[in-house]
Amino acid sequence: MQTTFDLFADTESEQPRRADQIGEQSWVLRGFALPQIDQLLPALESIIACAPLRHMMTPGGFSMSVATSSCGALGWITDRNGYRYSSEDPVSHQPWPAMPEVFRELAQAAAKRAGFADFVPDSCLINRYVPGAKMSLHQDKDENAYEAPIVSLSLGLPATFLFGGFARGDRSQKISLLHGDMVIWGGVDRLRYHGILPIKPGRHPRLGEQRFNLTFRTAG
Ligand SMILES: O=C(O)CCC(=O)C(=O)O
Fold first, then answer.
1. What positions does the domain Fe2OG dioxygenase occupy (predicted)?
2. For residue 55, how far is the Cα from the chain centroid?
3. Which of 65, 122, 142, 152 would you label with 217, given CA atoms 20 to 30 Å apart?
């Protein structure tokens, strides 16, 4: 598993920066994180070194195709006892690594740009996808309250994000996400189903054959 990144490859200058509205209170901010990439990648490397990525088990007994870790006061976990947030890493029994300031500031800036000026994330879930890994359609419902938006950052290989309705069977928009893009959904859209189609094979100049997704939430 590659967990050290090429911190010097220059791939970011060509990507467009714009905001696409995908729902009443949902936005894709294209390239929004690119100016911070040189701070974000070393911070991500440090977190993974402290709280290594692992394939967690669903309550139904299946190993997730994404490998996960977390930082912040609370980390999302799953095992045979269900989905929930925990203040400690169940592998090390230590608190999760602190959320780096560059993560928090980026998430707050993206949330503000999408109309959520008061966003205070206490959890950042890190998902690592290799080609073929996916995330089935689901709602984010394990947080204590739904007033805060979900703020998501894509790094590395491209992905197709499914953004659906309020029932699993509703039609989904298919949205291409590239390195540095951010998606924010909240308010009336907070409980929309969403997921990721299987990642296509490829190699990103900085991150290699993988995609990372960082999802910032107010969980507690
Ligand atoms: O990888 C993504 O972009 C979405 C991740 C996601 O849906 C989740 O962590 O709940």
1. 120-220
2. 16
3. 65
Q: Which two tokens stand for residue 212?
A: 């990372």
129 CB neighbour count, 10 Å cutoff: 23
CA dist 192 → 19, 84, 146 (Å): 19, 19, 12
Residue 187, in any domain of the structure: yes
Domain count, the chain: 1
In a domain, 14, yes or no: no
In a domain, 15, yes or no: no
Q: How far is CA 179 from the centre of its chain?
A: 12
Could you tell me the residue range of the domain that residue 176 belongs to?
20-217
Question: Could you give the 3-state DSSP secondary structure of residue 185?
Answer: strand
How far is ligand 1, taken at its centre, from the CA of residue 128, in Å? 10
pLDDT of residue 13: 54
What is the C-alpha to C-alpha distance for residues 143 and 186, in angstroms, rounded to an integer? Answer: 13
Mind listing the pLDDT tens digit for each residue in 141-152?
999 989 999 999
The reported pTM is 0.94
